[in-house]
Amino acid sequence: MDSKEFKKLFGEMAKSSKFESAFGGWFKDSTESIIVLDLQKSNFGDYYEMNIKIYIQGMFGNNYSRSKNLVKRDVGNIFRRQPPEYKSAFDFDELMDDEKRKKRLEQLFSEFIVPFTNKASSKSGIRELAEKGEINLLPAIKNELYYMS
What we know:
By secondary structure, the chain is α+β, with helices and mostly antiparallel strands.
């Protein structure tokens, strides 16, 4: 599987998980947040990092809408990457047959991305993710999030 095939497969899985493609990323919107998935090619090896950016509607008075800046420039109010146990699915330096890589991506979506982004779609879910240690909130974000409730 080459890079182009991998990105196509990732996009198909994102679409089947209720993400919509735009501006080179994949978006999941709710009334309380916008979640962006972005594949970033490494300069240090033949692998990708998956950036997960969460933009909380109303945070510091900002209302967000889909744009290229949300995908390529900003890091969001909350930023994280794929869990380490799924890193091999993104690493082309690691020999893996196409079927196994596809299975790992399917597991990533079913076991992590879908449940994580479902929670991150609401402010209460974001607070729960923070309390469980699944995300780290910067102090200003944490204060504003609790102030907004």
